[in-house]
Specification:
The protein has about 80 residues and is an all-alpha fold. The chain has four helices and no strands. Helix 1 (about 15-25) crosses helix 2. The radius of gyration is 11 Å and the shape is globular.
């Protein structure tokens, strides 16, 4: 069963952007180049996403975000 969206801390626009790029299969360096930020900043955003979604890995965070409707991997 899915957790209600209100139980999940809101993701920032940049966190969603990093997560969406990861859903496309991009690695940290490629995400950084695509959105114009440093790789360490991408890692920070992804760490925050994992904490907010209570996911232990980036793929788990992507899967959870998709299942909760927080990101659309097709856009």
């Amino acid at each position: 069963m899915h957790e209600p969206k209100q139980d999940i801390q809101a993701l920032s626009n940049r966190e969603r952007q990093c997560l969406r790029e990861m859903a496309f299969g991009k690695r940290v360096q490629a995400i950084a180049e695509t959105i114009g930020i440093a790789p360490v900043t991408v890692e920070l955003h992804l760490r925050n996403v994992r904490a907010k979604l209570q996911a232990s890995t980036n793929p788990a965070a992507v899967a959870k975000a998709i299942s909760l409707g927080l990101i659309d991997p097709y856009r």
